[in-house]
Design goal:
It is a single chain. The strands form 3 sheets. Strands 5-4-3-2-1-13-12-9-6 form a 9-stranded parallel β-sheet. The protein has a two-stranded antiparallel ribbon with strand order 7-8. A two-stranded antiparallel sheet has the order 10-11. 38% of the residues lie in helices and 15% in strands. It has one domain: TIM Barrel (Alpha-Beta Barrel), CATH 3.20.20.80. One 2-acetamido-2-deoxy-beta-D-glucopyranose (NAG) binds next to loops. Keywords: Glycosidase, Hydrolase, Signal.
Length: 342
Amino acid sequence: MKIQHLFFSFFPILLLSFTTTTAATSIGVCYGRVADNLPPPSNVINLLKSNGITKIRLFNTDPDVLKAFSGTGIKLIIGVPNEILPVLANGAVNASTKWLQANIFAHVPANQILYIAVGNEIFLKDPYYTPFVLPAIMNLYQALQTLDPAGKIKLSTPHAASILSNSYPPSAAAFDPYLQSAMIPLLQFLHDSRAPFMVNAYPFFSYSNNPKDISLNYTLFNSAPMVQDGGLTYSNLFDATIDAFVSAMENEGFAGIPVVVTETGWPTAGGGAALPENALNYNGNIIKRALNDVGTPKRPGVGVEVFLFALFDENQKSGEEFERHFGIFGPNGVKTYDLKFK
Ligand SMILES: *[C@@H]1O[C@H](CO)[C@@H](O)[C@H](O)[C@H]1NC(C)=O
Ligand SMILES: *[C@@H]1O[C@H](CO)[C@@H](O)[C@H](O)[C@H]1NC(C)=O
């Protein structure tokens, strides 16, 4: 009886502390470095700490950057550039082990790494590399069995939102049929290894490409319910996009794979809706909803893990003018608009 009494009195306390420490999905930021005017990585670490930013996505394995993060406690997504994938895919497992040791683990401890992002936006957008994605992931996965025996580091590959051939209504979403043979084994791997599906999602682009059909308020979390889908109601494009990916996976037979948004953001200049007030509105809502674990209509209460794009404007990016104006901070470390991270 005594034991039972202890059990009943302790259990709610444990439960309480568990829920209070795991609620609030923390916000990550992408540290893109296609620029010639950025502060040195050590200054960037101070900037992150003073703003309470605890998670960062890196697009490559620049040793100076990785070394600067080592021991800071900041958690990382580390990107394997697309061009490396054939080498990893075609080599033996021990080639992947060596690559991981030389390029990542020599510079930063395993317990700071959340995910290794294997390639970026390869499916449909950089299709030469498509056949190398899963073989590279499998070799890295085998290599991590010895380098990260607890299996904490998850492997995945970030996708462009355009890999959906249909996204409306969200429940009818489907991957581009052309991707079937690459997507199914990838989903199987993500499911079996409990790794997330990664997507780069930009409601800004959806609105800019189609302002007649998509309202600005719907993209900026400032709308009444716009879309009825089965029993679910959508009042913003971000939720509809995430749930479209959840449904596309379910429609292929894979339920329960988490979605991590490896990029989303809003530019502050470059024409049209690219304005600081819209960027503040969009990113501010993304942060609030993550911190409060709002989730989406299909997964209510499950905060979406998001990496905002990006820390700094990147003045050497090609393409449309707004591509060079996604930065939340100026190169001097001053915020372009008053975004709060916590
Ligand atoms: C890698 O593994 C292969 C096959 O097991 C072996 O023949 C080779 O010697 C290994 N290479 C190195 C550098 O350890
Ligand atoms: C957007 O929302 C605001 C109120 O928040 C409203 O005044 C405005 O008319 C809306 N715009 C459109 C195009 O519906």
